[in-house]
Design goal:
Elements (H helix, E strand, L loop, with lengths): L4 E5 L3 H14 L4 E5 L2 H10 L6 E4 L8 H10 L8 E5 L4 H9 L4 E4 L4 H16 L1
Parallel strand pairs: 1-2, 1-3, 3-4, 4-5
Length: 130
């Protein structure tokens, strides 16, 4: 059963806000939960009853980065079936390989423009949770 919750984990507040706005434009029924780093996200996920349908995860963050967070999510039985999309400005073949190796559903480079963000998030949501 879908919760209609999407979790964005990113230390950039502006990026989180644009993502949340794009998600609301795509489908107002979705709730966008936000975390500012991997540690904050894991603390939230441990306490929440309704888990997100999908997680968008940045790589470069303070305290706990995206790859460490992804690894921990995939180690926790309650969380390991949630698709995790690496959503980062950085993109190299090595980073993509590491993301897939650690269990990411896919790796996408953050779009630069709002309309591109809407289209990107809509494509991912449609593919992974609809």
């Amino acid at each position: 059963m879908l919760s209609n919750i999407v979790l964005i984990i990113d230390d950039d507040e502006d990026d989180r806000q644009m993502f949340a706005e794009a998600l609301q434009e795509i489908n107002p029924a979705f709730t966008c939960k936000q975390a500012y780093d991997g540690l904050h996200a894991l603390e939230h996920l441990e306490k929440t009853v309704l888990l997100p349908d999908i997680i968008f995860l940045d790589i470069n963050m303070p305290r706990m980065g995206g790859f460490e967070c992804l690894k921990k999510i995939k180690e926790i039985l309650r969380l390991n079936k949630i698709p995790v999309v690496i959503y980062s400005t950085a993109k190299t073949p090595e980073l993509e390989h590491m993301a897939h190796y650690l269990g990411a559903a896919c790796y996408i480079q953050k779009p630069l423009h709002y309309n591109e963000i809407v289209n990107c998030v809509k494509t991912i949501i449609t593919e992974y949770i609809n």
